[in-house]
Structures are given as structure tokens and as C-alpha cells.
Design goal:
The complex is a heterodimer of chains A (281) and B (155). With 281 residues, chain A is α+β, with helices and mostly antiparallel strands. Chain A has three domains: 3-46, no CATH class; 55-158, Uridine Diphospho-n-acetylenolpyruvylglucosamine Reductase, domain 3 (2-Layer Sandwich), CATH 3.30.465; 165-273, 2-Layer Sandwich (Enolase-like, domain 1). Chain A has helices at residues 13-20, 70-75, 86-91, 97-100, 105-110, 117-124, 139-145, 208-211, 214-219, 225-236, 249-280; strands spanning 3-9, 26-27, 40-46, 55-57, 61-65, 127-131, 135-138, 152-158, 163-170, 177-186, 189-195, 202-205. In chain A, the strands form three sheets. Chain A has a five-stranded antiparallel β-sheet with strand order 4-5-8-6-7. Chain A has a four-stranded antiparallel β-sheet with strand order 9-10-11-12, sandwiched between helices. In chain A, 47% of the residues are buried. In chain B, a hairpin with a 2-residue loop joins strand 3 (47-50) and strand 4 (53-56). Chain B folds into two domains: 2-74, Ubiquitin-like (UB roll) (Roll); 76-150, [2Fe-2S]-binding domain (DNA polymerase, domain 1), CATH 1.10.150. Chain B starts with a strand and ends in a 5-residue tail after the last helix. The longest helix of chain B has 15 residues, at 136-150. Classes of the chains: A alpha+beta (281), B alpha+beta (155). Chains A and B meet through strand 1 and helix 4 of A and strand 4 and helix 3 of B.
């Protein structure tokens, strides 16, 4: 059971940061996962009064406040086209609307949860996070290192040409994922983020040998079925998996190959469509 | 600490402990439609509206609802009865324990999307668990209610 002695609605990030230096104090985010554990907190630090619950669109990037809810990611029209709508796809299977109205982007990332759909999806985009003291760092670096006693304030997602596909496997709807896969294809090649391995999401990229041929082919919708198979197998082999009560490592590795193949096939199809549209112009 | 919550249109100001959950505060104020079904933020039985958005009251600290409007099924009587009749008409539920949470979230869906497709209904209500049924009766009841509303509310 979650035990909280004091509650402070922070009036500034400086105040929140200072409180967060004590180990017995915690930033509570949306408090959803935190509530599941047997946690004793001295001071619960609430960031909801700092105006960090908005999505801002700039010319070249989106700025997402740490207190933006997963539901906001899902329904914000401006985010609907970012990475082929990957953010909506990644959160829609998380429990239910009522849960997603509470769970926050900052909480999902700062917790660096193995099961995080949000972390998987954002890794496949060009994402940075802003720490109160540490400044802007790439999300992949943050995922590996964590915030320590710093505060994750905002998330920055670059607008670029990449197209994405998000896929997850769940034993039952709304459950934790057995594996999450986000595949992106852009001018800089293919990226695959894999989470719920069951460890936290990581990013893998293709070997140089395939990068030259396959990545542009998929982006332009010219890759054949066989090439996609080879490519998917190579990417899947780079994803370390483990076993837990949901699935074995072998099953997860098999799923990784299947989901990546489906993702690449879908990207190849959308490349074909785009080419078709250009030819028609 | 002192909080002020507007519960079903009535402003209540009182002292609460920091760890008190909104669900327990609501039940202490007579809102017995709000129930705890799972303890894992998963079942949707404790659904209430906070500033018009459906949320799990089992996962919100009462202090976080300070200054906010909260509505429970008790405050939506007419709307709930009108829709609930269609669920009952299908004999959709057996024990009925999950009913208030499902009605709350269905009302949230209708307000957000007055003409949802079957897929949209299923997606929106995925976080409302029912352990007696297979959701088919509820789905029929919802669709019947929607066509009744589309026809201007006449049967």
C-alpha cells in the first residue's frame, strides 16, 4: 500500500527540485504505478500546478510537458500525424480511458518501466527530454541512465520525414504488453525500438551492409518480401529478451521477428502509396 | 490539509490526510455508487468525472481534487437512468456491481462522441471490466440507446 505523510503541490521547479533531493520524497506524476507498490513516501511532490500539462507545437518540434496525460497524446489533433500517428497507437491499449486521463508522459518516462509503451514509441522518434538541472539530453541516454534526483520537465519530439508503425503483443486486451515494437523509417535509415523484453525499451539499428540497400528500399516502397524477411531477422537478433510470468525469452524473440516483419511490411506499403501519389502528381 | 471539492454541484470544504484517496472521500460523502473492484487501477468501477473527464477515483489523492469539480453517478441521475434502462432492458448484467462505473464511462463516451462505431465503443469501454458477462448485452444496450437517441429520443 502507498503511504504518504506529506503532500506538496510545488509552486516552482526549484522548490520541487529541492524537495526531491531527499530520498524519502518522491515526485508522484500520475501516481498510477506508484500506487501499486508498497511504498512509503515522506513528501509527495505534485508538479500539476506548474503549467506543464500542455503540448506546444513549434516550427520543427513538439514540446510536451511532463504532466501531459497519455489521453492528451491520444486525442491531440496536432500529434495525430507525427510519426504516422504512432503516439495514439502506442497508448490506446493501456488499461482504459479513465486510466489514461491520469497517467502522465513524464511519469511513464521517468519510471523507465520495462513495460512502457510510451517509452518504446518515443524512442522510435527523434526525442529529447529536458531535465531541470541536466538540460536537454537524448531520450535513449535518459532511458539508460535515468533522472536520479533531477526532474524530467519536458519532452521534445522533432518533426521529420520518418514514418512509423507501432505494434505490441498482449496476452489479453488492456494488459501489460508481452513485447512492444516501434519501427521507424526515414532518410536516416531504419530504427527499431523494442520494449517489454521484459526489460526497458532499447533502440536497435541495422548493420551498415543492409543500410545502403534495404532502408531506402523500404522507405520508397521498393523492398521485396524476401528482403524484408532478412532485414527483420537481422534486427530481431539484436534484441536481447528475457523470461517472466508473461512469456519466455524464446517466445519474445520469435515475436520480435514477427512484429518487426509486420512493421517493415507496413512501412514498405506506405512507401509504395506515397510513391504512387507522387507519380500521379 | 484543507481542500475544497465541488461534489455533484455542492461545494464541500474540509480537512483530509494527504494519503486519502478520492474514492474513500467520495464514499464517506455518501457516494456509494463509487466502488473498489480491483485495487490495481484496472477495473473501472470507481470511475467519476473530474472536470468532466472520466478518471479512476481509486488512483487519485483527494488533495489532488482540491478546487475541482467531481461528479459521480449520484449527480447524473436522469442521464444515468435513461441510459441504464437500455442496459437493464437487455438483461445485460447479472450481479450489477460493475454497472455504475460502466454507465459513467459510457456517458463520457456519448458526450465526447455522440455517434460512436462499434469499434469506438469497445475501445472507449475497454477499461470497464465485467466478470459476469461477455459484454455482448451491454454492447446491444448501448447500440439500442444510440439509435433511440438518434431518433430524437422516441421509441
Amino acid at each position: 500500500m502507498l503511504k504518504i505523510k506529506e503532500y506538496v503541490k510545488a509552486e516552482s521547479l526549484a522548490q520541487a527540485y529541492e524537495l526531491n533531493q531527499k530520498q524519502a520524497n518522491r515526485i508522484i506524476g500520475g501516481m498510477l504505478w506508484m500506487k501499486m507498490g508498497n511504498v512509503k513516501i515522506h513528501t509527495a511532490i505534485d508538479l500539476s500546478g506548474l503549467g506543464l500539462d500542455t503540448v506546444e507545437e513549434r516550427e520543427d518540434e513538439f514540446v510536451i510537458g511532463c504532466m501531459v496525460t497519455l489521453r492528451q497524446l491520444e486525442v491531440d489533433d496536432r500529434l495525430a500525424t507525427l510519426g504516422s500517428g504512432i503516439l495514439r497507437e502506442s497508448v490506446k491499449n493501456i488499461v482504459g480511458v479513465q486510466f489514461r486521463n491520469l497517467a502522465t508522459v513524464g511519469g511513464s518516462l521517468a519510471g523507465r518501466f520495462g513495460f512502457s509503451d510510451v517509452l518504446t514509441a518515443l524512442l522510435a522518434l527523434d526525442t529529447e527530454v529536458e531535465l531541470y538541472r541536466g538540460g536537454r539530453i537524448p531520450l535513449a541516454k535518459f532511458a539508460a541512465e535515468g533522472a536520479g534526483s533531477d526532474i524530467l520537465v519536458r519532452v521534445f519530439v522533432k518533426k521529420d520525414d520518418r514514418r512509423c508503425v507501432y505494434l505490441s503483443h498482449r496476452n489479453t486486451k488492456t494488459d501489460f504488453p508481452v513485447l512492444t515494437i516501434a519501427v521507424s523509417s526515414g532518410k536516416n535509415g531504419i530504427k527499431v525500438a523494442a520494449g517489454a523484453r521484459p526489460q526497458r525499451a532499447i533502440l536497435v539499428t541495422e548493420d551498415e551492409s543492409l543500410k545502403e540497400i534495404c532502408a531506402p528500399d523500404i522507405y520508397n516502397g521498393r523492398a521485396g518480401k524476401e528482403a524484408i524477411e532478412i532485414y527483420a531477422a537481422q534486427l530481431a537478433s539484436k534484441i536481447p529478451t528475457g523470461s517472466n510470468m508473461r512469456a519466455s525469452a524464446a517466445y519474445r524473440s520469435h515475436l520480435a521477428g514477427v512484429l518487426i516483419r509486420r512493421g517493415l511490411t507496413a512501412l514498405n506499403e506506405s512507401g509504395k502509396e506515397e510513391r504512387g501519389m507522387k507519380d500521379a502528381d | 490539509m484543507q481542500i475544497s471539492i465541488t461534489l455533484n454541484g455542492r461545494k464541500i470544504t474540509e480537512d483530509v490526510t494527504p494519503k486519502l484517496l478520492l474514492i474513500d472521500w467520495l464514499r464517506a460523502h455518501g457516494c456509494y455508487s463509487v466502488k473498489r473492484g480491483c485495487e490495481t487501477s484496472n477495473c473501472g468501477l470507481c470511475t467519476v468525472f473530474m472536470e468532466d473527464k472520466p478518471v479512476l477515483s481509486c488512483s487519485v489523492l483527494a488533495v489532488r481534487a482540491d478546487g475541482k469539480r467531481i461528479e459521480t453517478l449520484e449527480g447524473l441521475k436522469e442521464e444515468a437512468e435513461e441510459f441504464g434502462a437500455f442496459i437493464a432492458g437487455q438483461g445485460a448484467e447479472q450481479c450489477g456491481f460493475c454497472n455504475p462505473g460502466m454507465i459513467m464511462n459510457a456517458i463520457a463516451l456519448f458526450r465526447e462522441n455522440p455517434e460512436p462505431t462499434e469499434e469506438e465503443i469497445k475501445e472507449y469501454l475497454a477499461g470497464n471490466l465485467c466478470r459476469c458477462s461477455g459484454y455482448e448485452g451491454q454492447l446491444r444496450g448501448i447500440q439500442e440507446f444510440l439509435s433511440y437517441k438518434k431518433g430524437g429520443g422516441a421509441q
